[in-house]
Amino acid sequence: MPMTVVVMRDVESRYRGFLASAMLEVAPGVYVSPDLSKGVRERIWTVISTWYDVLNRGAVVMMWRDGTASGGLALRHLGDPPKEIRDADGVLLVKRL
Question: How far apart are CA 93 and CA 90, in angstroms?
Answer without folding.
Answer: 9
